[in-house]
Specification:
Elements lengths: L1 E3 L16 E3 L4 E2 H15 L8 E5 L9 E3 L11 E7 L4 E7 L3 H9 L2 E7 L11 E7 L7 H14 L5 E4 L5 E6 L6 H18 L4 E2 L11 E4 L8 E3 L15 E2 L17 H4 L22 H9 L15
Parallel strand pairs: 12-13
Antiparallel strand pairs: 1-6, 2-3, 4-5, 4-8, 6-7, 8-14, 9-11, 9-13, 10-11, 10-15
Helix pairs in contact: 1-2, 3-4
């Protein structure tokens, strides 16, 4: 594995087909996407830097079929940094894109990259994740994802862990617990499952940890599986393919009251960029929440009957 380096700029300069509509329901164009990436660069880049990326591209707009790009094409400009990693699934070395500056984001816009998905580890220590994620996925619009997020936050708090929250850009919410880079993916996924089980046990009629839809029985899923190797999470401040042109937006916990994820869009979020960052991130990407160690929390969960056991998302967890 290795990483190779790059430099800076940004905006609509050199953008082809700026009037091409990418979000037809919202009337958002490729030029609008480029403008957003330029405006949001200071907030977005700290969540991308040093993290290998998967780009979701929709050259014909989000109403048409798109595709994910892991392997950076050879025609990509030299200023786009690459991180090379051998992947067992494809039996080859893949050159992932890294985003260093606004010029890189401008190229993503040129490629119609409407979503940016980042690794939970960084290129300098790819086998040691520094993020623990929970994806709260409601089965129906009637389920209160905000209430579920508060339940999960309470369990984490009892374990001495502090979480940040953002919209998924769709119906759900994402909770992030920064962790020290001392655990492998198997450890962290098993720990995430134990946390999710502890929370679901307190609200068994409302929550589940079962990944297979047939076994959820209409309950809201506490998705712990994003903590495995080779998994990604849509980056904070990334646009989504939702027809409303939503953005996965960091929130303060107070903002969960009367939450409407649809109001955080490519049209509204640029105004939100004028306020203080709800996550308190500095330009390096360091959040106000310091990275945690999990040993004490792991022991507490085991004492409660929820040992850390890594499971495949394809397997039953109960």
């Amino acid at each position: 594995m290795n990483a190779q380096g790059g430099t800076g700029g940004g905006g609509r300069s050199g953008l082809s087909s700026p009037d091409k509509v990418l979000w037809p329901d919202a009337g958002i164009t490729k030029g609008d996407l480029a403008d957003y990436y330029a405006a949001a660069a200071d907030r977005l880049l700290p969540h991308l830097r040093r993290r290998p990326l998967t780009l979701r591209q929709h050259p014909r707009g989000v109403a048409e079929q798109g595709f994910f790009i892991k392997n950076l094409p050879r025609h990509a400009p030299a200023h786009i940094s690459r991180f090379e990693a051998w992947t067992e699934s494809s039996n080859r070395t893949v050159a992932y894109a890294l985003a260093d500056d606004a010029e890189d984001l401008a190229w993503f816009a040129q490629q119609n990259a409407v979503e940016l998905h980042a690794w939970t580890s960084t290129a300098d220590r790819p086998d040691r994740p520094d993020q623990l994620w929970f994806d709260l996925d409601p089965s129906t619009p009637q389920q209160s994802v905000a209430e579920a997020a508060r339940w999960l936050r309470a369990v984490l708090g009892e374990l001495g862990l502090e979480a940040l929250v953002k919209t998924s850009g769709k119906r759900g919410l994402h909770l992030l617990v920064p962790v020290e880079r001392r655990y492998d993916f198997s450890e962290l996924r098993g720990f995430g499952l134990a946390v999710a089980r502890a929370c679901a046990a307190q609200h068994p009629d409302a929550l589940t940890v079962e990944m297979r839809k047939a076994e959820r029985d209409g309950r809201l899923l506490l998705d712990w599986s994003r903590n495995g190797a080779a998994q990604t999470v849509v980056a904070a401040w990334s646009p989504r393919t939702d027809p409303r042109a939503t953005v996965s937006t960091p929130l303060s916990w107070d903002e969960l009251d009367d939450l409407d994820p649809g109001r955080f869009s490519l049209r509204s979020v640029p105004q939100l960029l004028q306020r203080a960052d709800p996550w308190g991130a500095d330009p390096s990407g360091a959040a106000a929440v310091a990275p945690h160690r999990i040993e004490t929390a792991r022991a507490a969960l085991e004492a409660m009957g929820f040992p850390s056991e890594d499971r495949s998302p394809r397997a039953r967890t109960s």
